[in-house]
Amino acid sequence: MKNSIQIVFATLAILIGLTSCNNSSKSNNKSGALASNVAEKVYVAPGEHDEFYAFISGGYSGNLTVYGLPSGRMFKEIPVFSQFPTSGYGYSEETKPMLNTSHGFIPWGDSHHPDISQTNGEIDGRFIFINENNTPRIAKIDLKTFETTEIIEVPNSAGNHSSSFVTENTEYVVAGTRFSVPIPQRDMPIIEYKGNFQGALSFISVAPETGAMDIKFQVLMPGFNYDLAHPGRGASHGWFFFSTYNSEEASTLLEVNASQNDKDFIAAINWKKIEEYVNNGGGKMMPADYAHNVYDEHTHTATSTMKKQVRVVNPTDVPGAVFFLPTPKSPHGCDVDPSGEYIVGNGKLSANLTVHSFTKMLAAIDSKKFDGEAYGIPILKFEDVLAGSVEQAGLGPLHTEFDSEGNAYTTFFISSEVVKWKLGTWEVIDRKPTYYSVGHLTIPGGNSRKPQGKYMFAMNKITKDRYLPTGPELEHSAQLYDISGDKMELLLDFPTHGEPHYAAAMRADIIKERSQKIYNLEDNKHPYAAFSDDDVKIVRKGNEVHIYMTTIRSHFSPDNIEGIKLGDKVYFHVTNLEQDFDVPHGFAVLGQNTSELLIMPGQTKTSVWEPTKVGVWPFYCTDFCSALHQEMQGYIRVSPSNSDVPLKWSLGEEIEE
Amino acid sequence: MKTTLKLMTIFFATLLISCGGKDEKKKETFSYEKKTTTDQTTAIKPEKILASNKVDLVNKGVGPIKNIDLGNEIDRKLVTHGTEVFKKMCTACHRPNKKFIGPAPTGILERRTPEWVMNMILNPEQMVKEDPLAKELLMEFNGSPMANQGLTEEDARAVLEYFRTLK
């Protein structure tokens, strides 16, 4: 039996290899005229703006990058889970608390799935959420400032991968665990995994006005791997779907041991039902340690609070809330179409795509036709919930997104291609190769009720020969396709930063309108801010020295500082007095053990410097701010610890009248 | 003019004498083509008037302000507000009575129209490109740009009222 399967797979692989060969030779044969037509489609003239924003996760860079489409130009890297010396994020006193966790300060993260907030199932461009995979956390980035403003740690989770996906009105951002673990964590033999480990699916509420996050409840599921997730839409709003693998509950050599079952599951969770149960006092609070870090845009400062408990729900305590939908061969992607009727489960070891029907699922639940249960959770019959399958579409299906015309686009990792197929008829319409080994793909609004279409881009895991070589390590490539016609057309290759794991994209107009230009000095409530010369001062508290400093083109006030001694801990609190768009100032001092600061107009940031040597040390502005940027400098005198040089500061005492 | 030059000579002479380390004694110091210490008869032509001293009571500058009627009486309430705004938004570069990073506003309305002053506050980027006086001033002040501090017209008007009180 095994042998014959292998033969079938091998034949398939060869066949698909041949098909994709044809495709690539076609695209390589394009004439010059055609190619220039393609160039026009991605050309955004100097000074013009792109039509779409794309927010591409940085994967193991821990950050989020901002691109324009169709040009593929990168505009910004937003630091989220990793220290970022370019701006001082995670180094400045104000932002260090953002990276605090119950495991202490963590300078790095692995960011995977960005998702934009929604209203009525349409992306609204207020916030973007992104998950940290390794030390489970969810971050929120405010799209007014493009700054990370909140990070919440997710307890009881491990490998926070089926995250961070928002419900139709951003009621919840959902975070599921890829790795099941002992809950609560404890010292136990790994071999006793089966039946003892559990998987937590966390529903993090998002306050409608402020966006403030709070873990409302966690559903403690059987010890499978919860891989990806998607909320219901329209009729299926109120449900959430999670793909699972390792229903074998193996703890070792998963590449073999977790591929034994012919089918794993998609877990269907009626979160509205569980929410009601919880609102009526259901579930129980269990002790847990997790950090909740919030950035205040008025004090320009983050605070980290340790939370001590979390509400957990046993799914069998809420009858009718959780079901398993059998889905072939270790499904990875779990995607719901814009109507909310179809749930696509891509069995990554299968050649077919499985599509479940939400209507059929409800009918099967109503008629209580179960195919057994797993740890008390009813398993529905595969045939009863199946809407259809796309036969032999390719090898290694991973993820699906949608356009507004009833088409779906699925990536195939092994056969390196994107396949376009029709919802309802399940026929394959087109296929195009990707270079190489595509993971996720994104269509602007393509995971919401209202896809915005026009473009699709594939994010590839392997780059090889697509760009000039840069040694063994290559940035991953993304590929932009025009999807406005029946056939997809490859328009552009563009490099990404880190691992472009997944992306969210949307029309630029909404975000562009709201994008903030400066921080208003009037609103600056930083406790160490200085707004004028009267506020400029230096205060010594024992060996702590606080310097209240201002910057404006092109000087620091003060710029001559004396009376610092070895053993002092010097806090430079730098306020940028500019109120003009795009005039940041930087601050660096020789021997700084952290990073520079990049201070936006109206902002205050703090760098701590513990001088190790006696001398007169320069500090300067790192951001080329004006014609006199090179003049923007100062000196700080460090005397021996036993010296009696008085504390003294000045600016421009020698200006000639 | 002549007396200014004399005064300046004396001033710089004293400055040169007083120059040198204070903590560390008598370091050699030098000066190379320092603006006003070179031979004044050749370096500064008598007819050359600095932009900051020029008087132009016609030019209204470039920007949103086309016509301002100052009125005879000084509006004290407006002055109080203007003083506050000036202190918060301007003192990083301007001292009321002496040249700092930028020129002193004292007596500005004897040299400029009120419209020019407000346009310089509200629209500095265009002013230093297009207004001949603003262009010259930029060079006189070492290319140090007048920052746009994003004042509202009301705030700028209040600052102007405050300038009226500076004598």
UniProtKB/TrEMBL annotation, chain A:
Keywords on record: Copper, Metal-binding
GO molecular function: copper ion binding
Keyword Transmembrane helix: no
Subcellular location per the Swiss-Prot or TrEMBL entry: Cell envelope
Main location, first listed in the record: other
Pfam family, one: nos_propeller
SUPFAM superfamilies named in the record: Cupredoxins, Nitrous oxide reductase, N-terminal domain
Gene Ontology cellular component terms for the protein in this record: cell envelope
Matching InterPro entries: Copper_CuA (IPR001505), Cupredoxin (IPR008972), N2O_reductase_N (IPR011045), Nitrous_oxide_Rdtase_Sec-dep (IPR026468), Nos_propeller (IPR041114), NosZ/Cyto_c_oxidase_sub2 (IPR051403), WD40/YVTN_repeat-like_dom_sf (IPR015943)
Metal-binding in keyword set: yes
Protein name, as recorded: Nitrous oxide reductase apoprotein
Provenance organism: Olleya aquimaris
From TrEMBL, chain B:
Record key words, sorted: Heme, Iron, Metal-binding
Entry keyword annotation includes Zinc-finger: no
Superkingdom, natural source: Bacteria
Keyword hit for tRNA processing: no
GO molecular function, one term: metal ion binding
Cited InterPro entries: Cyt_c-like_dom (IPR009056), Cyt_c-like_dom_sf (IPR036909)
Sequence ranges assigned to domain Cytochrome c in this UniProt record: 77-167
Protein name: Mono/diheme cytochrome c family protein
Taxonomic lineage from the root: Bacteria, Pseudomonadati, Bacteroidota, Flavobacteriia, Flavobacteriales
